[in-house]
Structure to design on (1075 residues):
């Protein structure tokens, strides 16, 4: 990528260093678990060893008697108020929130998965707290359990939630279903079908879950935790978990070590708050990595079938998507992720007839949730293979088939009432195809490759939101103020979890106000300081919070210009601000520094004092979809089934790259996570007991640098008129195309398809044998 | 599950004699690098009352060639995997061992973990064990007032179970000089570069007039212990070398394993991969040993 700035910009388009990078690199950054408050206790949670068991009795007397133990709590001590772990759900419109199941309590009176939270301890230190856990005696009545969502639907299956007649957690009809599917498929020249399932990929944030809670003498709660959406978490804590009101909750977000969607759910914050309330002291609750693997966050396993009808000319006539989601023990994100799966999966291709339906099912598996891509990597793995099957039936090149059928500008976006404003997808496809060498390497359908090592190429396309407009509440307010020295504070509320958003927002604000990048401080992480925002998800922060920051910055600039004009004795119309200096466009020797303007505004001894500041807002019912094409070249060893990925190409419709290095890093990181999702990452659950077998990084295998192939990132910049300087979102997107592109490349190389993720050598070899190929 | 270790006594004896008096393999456990033991203590898979550190014992951290003992390689109980991997004596004289250690990519594991500790874990998935099997290594075990010396393939008794008895410590691994003209190869399949093997294989071969004069084949992760494929070795020593011989030996080797299905792979896959890896390793080692230099097996 070129590092040349766009000539009209000072900060935008430059790969400037992120403000948080030095502290993260040197270890100076303070994460939630690093924080210690005076008098603070350490909390630990007792988890269930049974997948499904009624708690008959809990004897906490021995634990309470242990010196140093301040409190032991059980379900009997917590509010009888159901809530959902999905904090993001607070952003749903009320009619949609009503379909969320409020099935979660701070501690449970019935264990619904191995790892469910049964009791909690607060003690003077970790050692005492863990000794106390060992002393809690729980009498369980073990109940029959169910671990497969299809088994859970069978008559007579154990019912996971008391008072429910069955395990159907919810049903969602795709809101944009249209046309007569059966008739459309019947009259299509070809129908392609592909079925499969994704794995329960773990977010695997490097920072384990942790939370501190403290109540003050007026009954106001302060929480420190790595939340991705602190303002919504504040509401959920104040209105759902407890009944104290939003104003009585302050949420502080210290440095965050990765989120990937996990921090859109409550972690241990409700337990910390309860222990702090009972003890009257600050409590820090910690977990182990094994508990996290056995716990409350993973990608939702979805079993899907997609059928694509195609006409004689290769035009798509109908698409049907059927989704079965394993919610696990609690509902959490399983409804919204199933809905977003259908929106993004069914939203990329043009089709006159669409039918989508999702069914969410309770099981005694760990609770699933939302993860990077939020349904898109799940749906794309199925759709993009179905599209290749359709292209093969038509005898069309997969590139041409997608170019012919993908939606473009003016057509409905993934959230259909809205129209696509800009779409660089064709350019992404064309440039990506060149980068992978498609014309040289794709030899047509049934190329009949031979030998032990067989190479193949594959592709995938996708669309993703750049914000939640249309789906959720979508607004953000930023505050920018100028200090006496001409530096500025930008108050915003994204979650900086390693992706670089603080720098991106500072670049946008600096550019908008005419300040130098290094003179803009981003102030964040405290709901008492920042204004409302729905948080970092839906790949929205650059787009939505960026728009709010830009609005504030432009207002600040206007005030600076107006006051500078008076100081200079000139008309404000002819003035501009850049790099911290106000100057006359006609004669740049006429000017004054922003610092002087700001200083004069505050140290004003007459009647015209003004601390220059402005608020900026973004609100939209549009989500400005971004687009992307992904390509993979692989080599499969047909004797071992091992897939070696030779190269990945990701061509992304970024609108404008505010910080190209950050965007490339985001897409490369997504590609690495996507490759792990494609090939190795698998939360393995024992089918007999419900125990997570891969409960550490020794058994849950993520890729390291040694496993990564070359990743070529192509940023296609076609500025969108609705984005800040034309920018669209990117955060979640790098993950989505990798698995389907590899799956399609496997078919090109060896003529087989694997129907479940990850695509392991074991499965490849089995498919090759069934196909009669291989060794 | 716990974050903290349970309380334990910590001892740092200054001699092997003192150490063997303390360790009993159960309530009192020896600690060299601690890579395996400390993790298991956190997970409460091991709950020793006493941990006996060997770190203060002098004279156990050597990697040296004994010129008087036929040029054998001696690896002390405190020699780290990294130390062995980087030893010039090892890379020149026993490259197969260096290759096996190089396949462990975690630098943290290699700078903390010892080669002897790796064996003492007793895991069938050890990468070091197959190489040592193929190289004919022996293990020296000190007890109270005595010392014994056993072949490395007699060291492993079952998953997590070794020949080390209560009040015994492994003090040294001795690798004999490599047979003249021999070459080795270590191959491993794993999910990711840093994962434990699904299957690993080490072979050492030497040729005389187109037939194997020396053949050792060892396989890891495919049975309750690392195993030597003796029937396959015998076949190699009997038959003229050719691709079909390598394939036949690999199939014989696959009959000497008893793989299981676990989180890393399946029994079927492992059994199949033994065939592929043994054949590939033999073929590559044969190239290294020069069987095809100027003549092929059948003409010789």
């Amino acid at each position: 990528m070129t590092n040349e700035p766009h000539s009209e910009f000072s900060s935008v388009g430059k790969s400037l260093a992120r403000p948080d990078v030095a502290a993260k690199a040197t270890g100076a950054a303070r994460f939630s678990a690093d924080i210690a408050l005076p008098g603070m206790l350490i909390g630990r949670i007792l988890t269930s060893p049974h997948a499904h068991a009624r708690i008959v009795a809990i004897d906490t007397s021995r634990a309470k008697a242990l010196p140093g133990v301040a409190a032991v709590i059980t379900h009997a001590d917590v509010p009888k108020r159901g809530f959902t772990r999905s904090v993001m759900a607070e952003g749903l419109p009320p009619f949609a929130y009503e379909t969320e199941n409020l099935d979660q309590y701070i501690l449970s009176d019935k264990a619904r998965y191995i790892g469910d939270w049964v009791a909690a301890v607060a003690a003077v230190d970790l050692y005492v707290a863990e000794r106390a856990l060992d002393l809690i005696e729980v009498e369980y009545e073990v109940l029959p359990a169910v671990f497969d969502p299809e088994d859970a639907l069978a008559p007579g299956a154990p019912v996971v939630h008391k008072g429910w007649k069955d395990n159907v957690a919810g049903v969602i009809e795709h809101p944009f279903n249209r046309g007569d599917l059966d008739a459309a498929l019947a009259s299509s020249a070809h129908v392609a079908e592909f079925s499969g399932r994704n794995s329960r990929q773990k977010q695997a944030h490097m920072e384990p879950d942790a939370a501190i809670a403290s109540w003050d003498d007026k009954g106001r709660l302060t929480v420190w935790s790595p939340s991705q959406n602190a303002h919504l978490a504040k509401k959920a804590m104040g209105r759902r978990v407890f009944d104290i009101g939003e104003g009585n909750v302050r949420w502080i977000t210290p440095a965050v070590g990765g989120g990937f969607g996990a921090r859109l759910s409550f972690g241990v914050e409700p337990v910390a708050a309860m222990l702090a309330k009972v003890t009257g002291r600050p409590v820090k609750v910690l977990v182990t990595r094994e508990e996290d693997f056995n716990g409350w966050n993973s990608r939702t396993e979805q079993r899907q079938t997609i059928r694509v009808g195609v006409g004689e000319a290769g035009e798509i006539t109908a698409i049907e998507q059927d989704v079965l989601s394993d919610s696990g023990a609690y509902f959490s994100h399983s409804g919204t992720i199933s809905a977003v799966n259908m929106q993004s999966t069914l939203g990329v291709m043009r089709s006159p007839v669409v039918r989508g339906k999702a069914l969410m099912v309770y099981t005694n598996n760990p609770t699933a949730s939302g993860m990077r891509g939020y349904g898109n990597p799940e749906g794309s793995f199925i759709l993009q293979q179905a599209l290749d099957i359709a292209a093969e039936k038509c005898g069309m090149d997969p590139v041409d088939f997608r170019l012919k059928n993908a939606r473009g500008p003016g057509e409905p976006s993934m959230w259909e009432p809205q129209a696509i404003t800009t779409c660089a997808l064709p350019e992404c496809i064309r440039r990506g195809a060149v980068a992978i060498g498609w014309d040289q390497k794709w030899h047509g359908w049934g190329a009949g490759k031979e030998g032990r090592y067989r190479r193949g190429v594959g592709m995938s396309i996708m669309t993703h939101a750049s914000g939640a407009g249309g789906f959720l509440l979508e607004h953000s307010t930023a505050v920018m103020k100028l200090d006496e020295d001409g530096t500025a504070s930008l108050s915003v509320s994204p979650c900086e979890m390693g992706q670089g958003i603080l720098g991106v927002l500072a670049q946008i604000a600096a550019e908008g106000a005419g300040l130098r990048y290094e003179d803009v401080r981003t102030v964040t992480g405290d709901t008492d300081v920042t204004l409302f925002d729905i948080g970092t998800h839906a790949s929205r922060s650059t787009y939505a919070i960026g728009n709010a920051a830009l609005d504030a910055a432009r207002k600040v600039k206007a005030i600076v210009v107006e006051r500078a004009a008076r100081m200079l004795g000139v008309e404000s119309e002819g003035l501009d601000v850049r790099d911290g200096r106000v100057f006359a466009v006609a004669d740049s020797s006429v000017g004054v520094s922003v610092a002087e303007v700001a200083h004069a505004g505050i140290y004003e001894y007459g009647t015209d004092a003004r601390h220059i500041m402005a608020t900026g807002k973004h609100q939209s019912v549009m989500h400005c979809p971004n687009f992307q094409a992904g390509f993979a070249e692989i080599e499969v060893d047909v004797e071992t089934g091992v897939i070696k990925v030779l190269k990945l190409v990701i061509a992304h419709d970024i609108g404008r790259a505010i910080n190209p290095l950050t965007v490339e890093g985001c897409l490369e990181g997504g590609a690495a996570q996507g490759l792990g999702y494609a090939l190795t990452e698998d939360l393995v659950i024992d089918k007999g007991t419900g125990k997570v077998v891969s409960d550490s990084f020794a058994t849950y295998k993520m890729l390291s640098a040694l496993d990564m192939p070359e990743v070529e990132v192509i940023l296609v910049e076609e500025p969108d008129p609705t984005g800040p300087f034309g920018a669209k979102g990117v955060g979640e997107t790098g993950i989505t195309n990798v698995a389907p592109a590899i799956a399609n490349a496997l078919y090109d190389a060896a003529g087989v398809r694997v129907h479940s993720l990850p695509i392991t050598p074991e499965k490849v070899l089995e498919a090759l044998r069934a196909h009669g190929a291989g060794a | 599950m716990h974050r903290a270790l349970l309380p334990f006594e910590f001892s740092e004896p200054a001699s092997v004699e003192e150490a063997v008096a303390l360790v009993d393999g159960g309530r009192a456990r020896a600690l060299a690098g601690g890579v395996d033991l400390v993790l298991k203590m956190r997970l409460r898979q091991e709950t020793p009352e006493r941990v006996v550190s060997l770190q203060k014992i002098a004279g156990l951290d050597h990697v040296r060639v004994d010129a008087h003992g036929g040029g054998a390689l001696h690896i002390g109980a405190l020699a780290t995997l990294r130390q062995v991997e980087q030893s010039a004596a090892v890379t020149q004289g026993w490259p197969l061992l260096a290759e096996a250690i190089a396949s462990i990519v975690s630098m943290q594991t290699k700078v903390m973990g010892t080669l002897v500790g790796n064996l003492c874990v007793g895991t069938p998935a050890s990468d070091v064990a197959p190489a040592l099997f193929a190289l004919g290594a022996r293990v020296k075990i000190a007890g109270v007032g005595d010392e014994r010396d056993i072949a490395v393939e007699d060291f492993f008794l079952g998953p997590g179970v070794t020949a080390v008895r209560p009040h015994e410590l492994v003090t040294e691994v001795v690798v004999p000089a490599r047979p003249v003209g021999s070459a080795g190869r270590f191959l491993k399949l794993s999910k990711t570069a840093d994962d434990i093997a699904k299957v690993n294989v080490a072979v050492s071969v030497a040729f005389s007039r187109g037939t194997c004069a020396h053949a050792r084949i060892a396989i890891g992760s495919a049975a309750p212990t690392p195993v030597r494929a003796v029937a396959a070795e015998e076949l190699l020593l009997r038959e003229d070398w050719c691709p079909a011989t390598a394939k036949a030996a690999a199939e014989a080797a696959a009959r000497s394993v008893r793989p299981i299905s676990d989180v890393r792979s399946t029994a079927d896959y492992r059994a199949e991969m033994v065939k592929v890896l043994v054949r590939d390793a033999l073929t590559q080692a044969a190239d290294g040993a020069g069987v095809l230099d100027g003549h092929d097996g059948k003409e010789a």
Summary: Residues 9-52 of chain B form one domain. The first strand of chain B starts at residue 9 and ends at 11. Chain B has a mean pLDDT of 94.
